[in-house]
């Protein structure tokens, strides 16, 4: 269900973006081999990586999809068990010849169309499924992705390191994979200038970072360290992010302000810490200058019940939640089956449900107290703050 929803939303988003930007240029400045100048002569491609072997494609007859897994996208992987690429191509975009050993030699079929796209214009979509900034396992076998391939998309899945490798390992790996896709653009279906990344939660955060930091020099040392292709861009055309966890510097405070009043069973010391964190979130909000759609600054005020559960920011958040709830009630057929909501853990939207101690928390929040860090530095999200060269 999650794949179907994300594929449908992505199709709508890309239709809008591609229509708004007009037809793609007839000259994408594709590379023609290692160390040759691009159309933009300000950069040249430098890499020892081989391009995708066009004689090693596998074919899934039922789905009409050509695919390859285990493609190296960097020369010096820090963890080769993760840092490989899998690509799934709508079958019509290729003309394939059976090699007799289960593999196919493929050439791009420039005339075929799938859902209005051709091999030249098809968008490339990349998932970033890294909840809590975890690693994304590399695909080693076929996965049915017809929600995407039947929509005409080329689906590229890049395994990447996670929080245990420190920051910015995950984003670095995704950027390296994007560079590799551009490096191979001249022989592959899909428009490497129309790459879209997408994710939810920690994956949404990393997707947002990939979208916001295209070609940022801050990543150059990390990309060079793993031997990413040099001289090509790692920008993306679009980034679609559900509930991205990007504000980890204030996440503990926000969690206790929002969720602290829903739990019970804390010790006196834990409750004191929770209360201080909740009050600190009010200080953060009142200094942040956050505005609503009408330009009004939103603030929090002290309240008789709870901690700073009043003020324009409080009213605004309550309004957003009530609107979301009403949308859910109007859009949902009852009796409601939470397991069909598309998430991993059930509950509303699949990423929630009531946790321990009466807390509406994700189960992996270990009881909900100090939702993102923890005094023992053992919770996953906080480990993301470590530099990958210091792990």
Question: Can you give a write-up of this model?
Answer:
The longest helix is centred in the last third of the chain and has 21 residues, at 268-288. Helices cover 29% and strands 12% of the residues. The strands form 2 sheets. The chain has a 7-stranded mixed beta sheet with strand order 1-2-3-7-6-8-9, with helices on both faces. The chain is α/β, with parallel strands linked by helices and 391 residues long. The chain folds into 2 domains: 2-21 and 30-242, Alpha/Beta hydrolase fold, catalytic domain (Rossmann fold), CATH 3.40.50.1820; 249-371, no CATH class. The radius of gyration is 23 Å and the shape is elongated. Mean pLDDT is 84; it is low at 20-42 and 343-368. α3 packs across α4 (202-212) and α6 packs across α7 (268-288).
Short description:
The chain has 391 residues and is α/β, with parallel strands linked by helices. The chain has helices spanning 2-21, 146-149, 169-183, 202-212, 220-225, 248-259, 268-288, 312-331, 380-383; strands at residues 58-60, 65-72, 84-90, 94-98, 104-108, 124-127, 154-158, 195-200, 238-242. Helix 3 (169-183) packs across helix 4 and helix 6 packs across helix 7 (268-288).
């Amino acid at each position: 269900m999650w794949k179907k929803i994300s594929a449908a939303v992505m199709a709508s988003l890309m239709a809008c973006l591609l229509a708004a930007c007009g037809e793609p240029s007839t000259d994408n400045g594709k590379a023609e081999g290692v160390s040759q100048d691009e159309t933009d002569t300000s950069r040249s491609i430098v890499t020892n990586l081989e391009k995708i072997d066009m004689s090693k494609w596998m074919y899934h007859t039922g789905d009409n999809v050509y695919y390859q897994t285990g493609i190296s996208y960097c020369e010096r992987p820090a963890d080769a068990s993760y840092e490989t690429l899998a690509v799934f191509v709508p079958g019509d975009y290729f003309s394939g010849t059976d090699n007799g050993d289960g593999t196919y030699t493929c050439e791009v079929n420039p005339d075929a169309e799938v859902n209005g796209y051709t091999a030249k214009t098809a968008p490339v979509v990349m998932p970033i499924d890294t909840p809590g900034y975890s690693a994304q396992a590399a695909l080693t076998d076929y996965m049915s992705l017809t929600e995407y391939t039947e929509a005409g998309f080329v689906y590229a899945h890049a395994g990447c390191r996670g929080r245990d490798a420190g920051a910015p390992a995950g984003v670095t790996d995704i950027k390296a994979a994007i560079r590799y896709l551009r490096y191979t653009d001249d022989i592959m279906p899909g428009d490497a200038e129309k790459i879209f990344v997408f994710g939810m939660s920690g994956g949404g955060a990393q997707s947002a970072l990939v979208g916001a930091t295209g070609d940022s020099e801050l990543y150059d040392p990390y990309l060079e360290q793993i031997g990413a292709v040099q001289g090509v861009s790692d920008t993306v055309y679009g980034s679609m992010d559900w509930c991205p966890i990007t504000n980890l510097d204030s996440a503990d405070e926000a969690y206790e302000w929002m969720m602290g009043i829903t739990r019970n069973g804390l010790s006196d010391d834990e409750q004191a810490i929770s209360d201080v964190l909740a009050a600190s979130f009010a200080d953060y909000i009142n200094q942040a200058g956050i505005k609503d759609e009408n330009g009004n600054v939103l603030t929090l005020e002290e309240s008789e019940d709870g901690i700073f559960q009043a003020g324009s920011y409080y009213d605004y958040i309550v309004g957003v939640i009530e609107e979301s709830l009403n949308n859910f009630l109007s859009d949902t057929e009852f009796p409601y089956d939470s397991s069909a909501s598309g998430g991993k853990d059930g509950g509303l939207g699949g990423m929630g449900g009531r946790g321990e101690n009466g807390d509406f928390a994700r189960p992996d929040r270990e009881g909900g107290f100090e939702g993102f860090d923890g005094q023992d530095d053992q919770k996953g999200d906080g480990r993301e703050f470590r530099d990958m060269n210091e792990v």
